[in-house]
């Protein structure tokens, strides 16, 4: 073995120190990148053509064997953006947890998971990992529209979308949800303006308190749920005059269409319409008012003590006012978007 001089040892130590420092720097940079991606998601920068191409290359490695790169390059000839990529992936059912991770820091505004989370037999293929992506820090800060139609969600999954800061439109049509799910949406009360929970029979009148907390709603679909007229009346009565267009269940539509057979809809003076005036009426006036309603609905009694007649007329007039408000807020299938646009404009003012 060759003898080493003190100077040689010193040079060797310096070389080793430099090598270790270089390795440490490399490890530090790698760790920082991993930490940054976990905290913010992979950056897409300004979504330049090069950045979109890099994104497509990553997708090609995540989704092998389906010619995703070739298909996307053809699709994006006219316009290349993260949103266009997501739209393509959504339409073709290619969104999964690993794919969504790539878009956490993007400017994507809308995502539909309808096709990606069910197979050709309509079976539920949802994993908790997919929804967990939405709850990671700083994720999908530009997302305004999310569609989860036709899925069979497990209620706790909705906790992962509670803090999306700009979520405005949420569709949970036929998603197998119940009242508990509506309460999990309350954290979105300031941003959510359009909510579709139609075709979920597990939702009934007990969900109304949670729906009332969604103070930003301009449109609500509760068609084909188990919410009845009692719940519908409370929805409109307790919103403090705030206007919301509502798609109601068929049973409520049937009731509204037959209101003219429930009571006298349009009484004129000296008949009253204000429930608070009932206690001031004489017995004769009470009978006259009750008789006008009994003329269209024989089930309404016109006799009894004065106290009984006051209570009966008060309840009838309160129901009438609530029903008229429900009718005013119903959104019919043939109604155009003019009313909705008008309401959104008023909301901004």
Automatic annotation (TrEMBL):
Matching SUPFAM superfamilies: RNI-like
InterPro entries for the chain: LRR_dom_sf
Domain of life (superkingdom): Eukaryota
Protein name as it appears in the record: Uncharacterized protein
């Amino acid at each position: 073995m060759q003898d080493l001089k003190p100077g040689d040892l010193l040079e060797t130590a310096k070389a080793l120190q430099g090598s270790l420092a270089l390795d440490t720097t490399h490890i530090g940079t790698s760790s920082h990148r991993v930490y940054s991606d976990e905290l913010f998601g992979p950056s897409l920068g300004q979504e330049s053509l090069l950045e979109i191409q890099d994104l497509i290359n990553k997708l090609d490695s995540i989704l092998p064997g389906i010619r995703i790169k070739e298909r996307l390059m053809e699709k994006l000839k006219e316009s290349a953006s993260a949103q266009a990529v997501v739209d393509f992936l959504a339409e073709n059912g290619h969104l999964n947890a690993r794919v969504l991770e790539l878009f956490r820091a993007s400017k994507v505004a809308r995502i539909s998971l309808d096709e990606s989370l069910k197979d050709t037999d309509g079976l539920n293929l949802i994993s908790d990992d997919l929804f967990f992506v939405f709850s990671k820090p700083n994720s999908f800060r530009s997302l305004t529209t999310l569609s989860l139609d036709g899925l069979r969600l497990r209620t706790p999954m909705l906790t992962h979308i509670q803090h999306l800061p700009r979520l405005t439109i949420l569709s949970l049509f036929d998603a197998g949800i119940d009242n508990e799910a509506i309460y999990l949406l309350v954290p979105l009360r300031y941003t959510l303006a359009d909510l579709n929970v139609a075709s979920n029979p597990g939702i009934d009148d007990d969900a109304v308190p949670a729906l009332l907390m969604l103070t930003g709603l301009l449109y609500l679909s509760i068609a084909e749920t188990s919410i009845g007229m009692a719940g519908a009346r409370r929805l409109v009565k307790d919103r403090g005059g705030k206007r919301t267009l509502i798609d109601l269940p068929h049973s409520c539509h049937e009731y509204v269409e037959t209101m003219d057979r429930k009571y006298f809809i349009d009484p004129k003076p000296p008949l009253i319409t204000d429930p608070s005036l009932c206690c001031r009426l004489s017995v004769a006036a009470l009978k006259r008012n009750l008789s006008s309603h009994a003329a269209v609905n024989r089930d309404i009694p016109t006799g009894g003590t004065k106290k009984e007649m006051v209570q009966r007329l008060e309840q009838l007039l309160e129901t009438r006012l609530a029903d008229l408000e429900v009718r005013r807020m119903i959104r019919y299938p043939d109604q155009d978007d003019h009313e909705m646009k008008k309401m959104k404009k008023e909301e901004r003012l």
